[in-house]
Each structure stands twice: as structure tokens, then as C-alpha cells.
Amino acid sequence: MANKRKLAVTGGRVIDPAQGIDKPADVLIVDGKIEDIVDAGASYADYEIVDATGKLVTPGFVDLHTHLREPGQEWKETIATGTQAAAQGGFTTVCAMPNTDPVQDSASVIEDVLRKANSEAAVRVLTIGAITVGQHGKQLSPMGELADAGVIGFSDDGNPVSDANLMRQALAYSVDLGLPVINHAEDKKIRGNGVMAAGEVATRLGLAGAPAEAETAMVARDLHLADLTGAQLHVPHISTLGSLVALRSAKECGVNVTAEVTPHHITLSDRWVYGERGNVPEVVGLDAYDTNTKVNPPLRNLTDRDAMVEGLAEGLIDIIATDHAPHAATDKVCTYDEAAHGINVLETAIAQILTYSSRDKLDLTRVIESLTSGPAEILGKELGSLKKGYSADLAIIDLNEKWTVDASSFASKSINTPLDGDQLTGRVTTTIYNGEKVFELRTNE
Amino acid sequence: MTTTVTPPTESGVANTRKNLIDIDDLTREEILEILDSAEGMLEIASRDVRKTPALRGKTIITMFFENSTRTRVSFEQAGKILGADVINVTASASSVSKGESLLNTVKTLQAMQVDALVVRHPHSGAPYFIARHADAAVVNAGDGTHAHPTQSLLDLFTVRQHVGDLAGKKVALAGDILYSRVARSDIHAFQKLGAEVSIACPNTLLPNEWKPGTRLDESSGFGGVNIAKSVDEAVDGADVVMALRIQKERQDAGHLPSMREYSDRWGINSKRMALANSNALLMHPGPMNEGVEIATDVAHGAQSVVEEQVMNGVAVRMAVLYTLCAPGRSSRLNGSSEEGA
């Protein structure tokens, strides 16, 4: 009989929103599962000690929206590198979006991803199936087959389901499967050629602007269709005030809907396109047109950004999800029009939220809840908490550590973050998954 | 034959600026310095034997990723009159069409000894990207819908030749504002020299946050611009009327019902020119769509200075190229404490 592997995470401040815990405590782990949370100060004879003195101890983060790029775009990221990046950011579960090549629109591709994840991933990988075949928006994918293969929901992320009837059918069909439909809401006709949010920054830079209504109009449509069908809708990367207004009304009417916001949509704004960390320069400088800010939905103005913070704080927006979208230099070192959409998020997510949002507006517990119990509840899985018997997935965070983002040292294969060179406060120092350390900042801590 | 090209001054543009990407960068003094230099250049360009060795031994590459005969020829002539070696690269001819990235194209050219890259590109911001990766001076010959600094400089030069001081003069810009880099650069340029600028176009061709019948404030980046409710209002009492080109693509994109309706309600014709000052100048950056944004009779009428604009364009571009590429420049730039954009 093998010895049971025992870990004790000691001396930290344990925040587990699912259990309403926020206190100094030690977390005991046996055989990859949470054994207990006990008052700090005991000694543990046959436990390996992980010293969390002065740090925050939380459940490992659960990300409902990650682009792992494998199969098909392995030069940008792989399951191995993407999940290692997740671990460095305190994430112990990621949900892989289906815009791979081939698209995750059949059981065989899902099985391929899960098999690869089983041998190469640093953390838990769940999968999302495509809504339509090839994500082309014409024909429903075999959603039942995908459900049997274990997907946690359906999305054509990157593409909207533009055909309103098909979106309605997808929602109606999903009711039998009990899984959410996650539609990337973007009316392409309203968006036009927009490469960033419409507004003063776009006008000054001469970049085509996408109005907020390109998102809002389709979010409204999806909410009405969810109401019509009684299906479970999950709104990805919500970013406009108009979307929030519609969301509030829908929730009040009992529509079965949840929503996520990204770290960048609560911390950055369209002003970051000037390349001066959100400052508005008197004269546009050489760092302008920073392609690392190009993302879909685009970085919005301050009104929208502040509304997202408020919406998350009050729970109108249910969770945070990263939309981690790695891109290689060939897709980003070019003009703004040519650049691919996407920001590299996993390794800076918690730090940028802690640094760029005020605890007065968005308190620490709410932040942790949005990354742990919130996503777990949407998934309906035993994750995102330190309850006894749950998988021992933890993040240990030093709230006070100041560090400078160095994208070239990311675990991610790609470096496309607008925060490169930025000084942030707050850093994940250890991540534990299934009772094993999958990331440790300094091994001689 | 004595040269009338004056060497660069200690504190001027030549010592502080590496590139000319946006007119918005330049101070009023710097603009006047370039216009003064262009006076001398105009004289040289008007000679029977127009050549001066000012930029002899310098290499200027024009990189045009967008069709343009007039601007390219203007820059090419400007460089050649100054004695530089001018090499023209068009996107179809260069490796870009074979799939070589813009970055690699720039790096390849940069590996050869190039003093100036004159760039026209359909994407706004391209010259900033190029300037980040090239040592050569970058001169923006038009990027997307963002800026066309040498056009606005030659517009200023042309007006100055006629009216002298631009302070308090009324300038009306009529045409496609939303998609026009000339409009943006002209607004900055005319305002820097103290003129009062009004714009006029259908609501669909304004940025969405600009409303007819209002004055823009500073946060827009174009503070002080008056958005007229009609072209008649903008042109009324104007000293300069600038007609900007309307492209058929705007109709295709649903911005306009037809060229006919545009011409009828917004076009610059003799009836509208009569509302302007009697010695108002009629300008157009070219190429003109006669019968659309500008009526044929006024395009070639007594008040039109369109042909002067073209001639002045060569002189202004000579001034810009000389200022940015004159011999000894890199040591002057490295010696100065300010490295301008």
C-alpha cells in the first residue's frame, strides 16, 4: 500500500468564498484531495509543509474561457505551454475554446484534446464544443455527441452565430443536454471594419471604430432568444454598458443567463492603444497603435470599463474569465489593421486586477469568488473550493509583491500583452493541482 | 550657380526631429521654418535647370503600398532636384506581394544605406510601425485615414503665398471627413497657424461622436473645429474653401444615396463660392471628381489655386526632405538632447 501523500499549506490567510471562509488557517491535503482546513498554528509531523506565511491561500482559479491553440496553431501555444501559463497565473482548471484546427466540432477532436491534456497538461483541461460545424454558422454541430464526449458548453468563439434562427435552434437544442450556449455576441454589419472601439481615440488615430452597439445589439437578441427557449445562455467577454442594461433586465425576468468579463475589460481601456499605459498623449508618439491592445471585443472607453467593474462587484456579471488568446509575433508585429485579435492574459490576470482596480470598488473576496466558486457553479462541478474531498487545487498569492512583467519569460509560447514592462503588485507564488505543486515561483522559498 | 538652400538652424526641426509622421507633432515655429525653407525650394524648382547638390549622395526610397501617381512623382521630383538618389518601390513590385511581411521588407531596405523612407500605406499607423524598426528618416506620404502631413504643409504654403498671416482667417473643409487623412491633417495645420476651421459634410461622413451644429472641445483631439450644419454655412465668409474628394465606395458602404445627391446638397459650385469672400481661395488636394464635390467651372475658375498646390507640393517636399536628410544630420541628432518623434 502506497504512503498517502500529505501536504500542509500553513500560515496563510485562507479565503474560500464557497464556504464563506476568510481567516488565518492551514489547509491539509491528503492524496490529492482537501482533507481539512484547520486553525493555524498546529504542527504536522508527517506532512510536507508548504509555507504560506504572509500570503493569501485560495482555491485554484477556474477559467471558463481559454484558447489553447492546439490542435492546429501550435506555433502560438500548445496544451502544454498554455496550461503551464495557467498554472503560473494561479489557474488549475481551464476550458479550451473550440476555435482550433480542426475545430472542436466532433467527439474525435475532443477526445484528441483530452488525451493530449491527460499526458501533457499542467492543470485540468475541460473542453467546449462548437455550436456549428467548423464554426461557420450554417449548421448545428453534433451537440449531443459533443456532450457525451464531455464538453461543458458550446461556443463558436471568435465568430458570432449571426443567423438568429440558428441561434434559437442551438439554444432550444441545448435544453435537452443541460449545457450552456456561449455565443460571441458581435453584429458584424454594425461593427463594419472597426479594429478598435469607436470614439475619440479611434477618430484621432484614424483607426476604424466598432461601436459598442455591435455587441449590445446581439447580446439583446441572445437574451430574448434564451427567454423564448428557456435555455441556459452564458454571455462571454461582456464589455459594454448597454449589454449590462439588457442583462439586468433579463435576469429580473428570470432568464437563465450568466455572464463573464475579462481581466482586460475591467482594467484597461481604448486609451491603451496610444501605447502610453492608458494616458492620453498631447502628441501621438512612436509607441502608438500598440497591436497588443487589439482584441475582440475591443478595449472600451472608461465609461464601459467602469460599468464592468461595478457590474462584477454587484454580481450582475457573474464571473471573470480570461479569454487568454496567444498570438505569435508574425500575427502581432505588423500594422494595427493587419494584427490578429487577442491578448495573452493567464499570467497577468490576478495581478492586473489587483493593481488596476480599487479594492473599494471591487473587494478581494468578490475577486476570488469570481475566479473560483462562481465559475464552478456555472459548470456545476466540484471545483473552485477547498471543501473536504474536493480536488486539492490551490493558489498561493503574495498580495504585496511588486514585480515587472517580462513577457519574454512567460510560460506561454507567446508574448502578446500590452502590460509588458509594467510594474504590478500581487503575484502567484505557488499553484497546487491535485495535491501536486505545478508552479512555484522560487523553489527555495 | 549659387545655391539658395540654407543650412539647418541649431534649434530647428533638423536637429530635433527624425521623422515627419504627423503634422500634429510640429509646433507652429517648426511649421513656419519648413514653409520658409520651401520658399527657397520653390525658386530652385522653378528654374530652367533645376538641380542643386544639397542631398547629393543621399538615398531616398519611396515605398507606396497604395496607388498614387501624383504624390509619388512629387516626392521623386523633390528628391531628384536636390540631387538625391531616389528609388521607387511599389507594393505590387516589391516582395510584399510574394508574402514578405511589412516588417521584413522594412528590415531588408534598412540593411542597405537608406537616408529616408517616404511611405504611403493604406493602414493608419503604418509609419509609426516602420519608424520603430528603421533607422532611416520616415516621411509619411499618407497613412490610412490618419494623416498626410506634407499635403497640409503645401496647403498652408499655398494659402500663405496669397494671404500672408493665417491668423483669424476662416477655412472651410467640405467633403468626406470620416475617411480623410487630408481633412485631419489640414485641421491640425490650419489651427496651428491660427486659422478658424469649419467642416461640412453629411452626418454619415462625420465620426459618430461629432455632431452637426457644434464646436469640438479639446478632448476630441481636434478642439476648436466648428461643425457646420450645411456647406453653405461653412463657406459663408470663408477665406479658403477646400473641397475634399468623395469616393464611390462611400455610396457602396451606404453612407450616401448617390453622388448626385451629394453634389446637389454639398458640392462646391459657383453659387456656394459666391457666399465666400470675394478673394477666397478654392483648393482641392486632388485628384478631383469634377461634378461631384467640385463643379468644373469653379475647379478651373479664377479663384482656383489647385495647380499652384501641385507646384508648391514639390517645393514643400524638397524642404521636408532636405530638413530631415541634410548631410551631417545624424551627428546633429545624436548630439542634441531631444530625440523627437
Main sheet of chain B: which strands, in order across?
7-8-6-5-9-10
Largest interface: A-B, 27 and 33 residues
Strand content of chain B: 5-15%
Q: Give the SSE order of chain A as H and E letters.
A: EEEEEEHEHEHHHEHEHEHEHHEHHHEEE
Mean pLDDT of chain A: 97
Apparent shape of chain B: globular
Overall CATH architecture of the largest domain in chain B: 3-Layer(aba) Sandwich
Number of helices of chain B: 14
| Cα radius of gyration of chain B in angstroms | 20 Å
Ends of chain B: how far apart?
Answer: 36 Å
Give the percentage of residues in beta strands of chain A. 15-25%
The 3D shape of chain A can be described as globular
Q: Keywords, please?
A:
heterodimer; A: 445 residues; alpha/beta; TIM Barrel; 8-stranded mixed beta sheet; 3-stranded parallel beta sheet; 13 helices; 16 strands; 28% helix; B: 341 residues; Rossmann fold; 2 domains; 6-stranded mixed beta sheet; 4-stranded parallel beta sheet; 10 strands; 39% helix; 13% strand; disordered C terminus
What does this structure look like?
The complex is a heterodimer of chains A (445) and B (341). Chain A has 445 residues and is α/β, with parallel strands linked by helices. Chain A has a single domain (60-384), classed as Alpha-Beta Barrel (TIM Barrel). Chain A is built from 13 helices and 16 strands. In chain A, strand 11 (233-235), helix 8 (241-252) and strand 12 form a beta-alpha-beta unit. The model of chain A has no long low-confidence stretch (mean pLDDT 97). Chain B is an alpha/beta fold. Chain B has two domains: 13-148 and 312-329, Aspartate/ornithine carbamoyltransferase (Rossmann fold, 3-Layer(aba) Sandwich); 149-309, 3-Layer(aba) Sandwich (Rossmann fold), CATH 3.40.50.1370. Helices cover 39% and strands 13% of the residues of chain B. Chain B has helices spanning 13-16, 28-45, 70-81, 102-111, 126-133, 149-163, 181-192, 231-235, 248-252, 259-266, 270-273, 296-299, 306-325, 329-335, and strands at residues 59-64, 85-90, 116-121, 137-143, 170-174, 196-200, 214-215, 226-227, 240-243, 281-283. In chain B, the strands form two sheets. Chain B has a six-stranded mixed β-sheet. In chain B, strand 3 (116-121), helix 5 and strand 4 form a beta-alpha-beta unit. Chain B starts with 12 loop residues before the first helix and ends in a 6-residue tail after the last helix. The interface between A and B is medium-sized, with 27 and 33 residues.
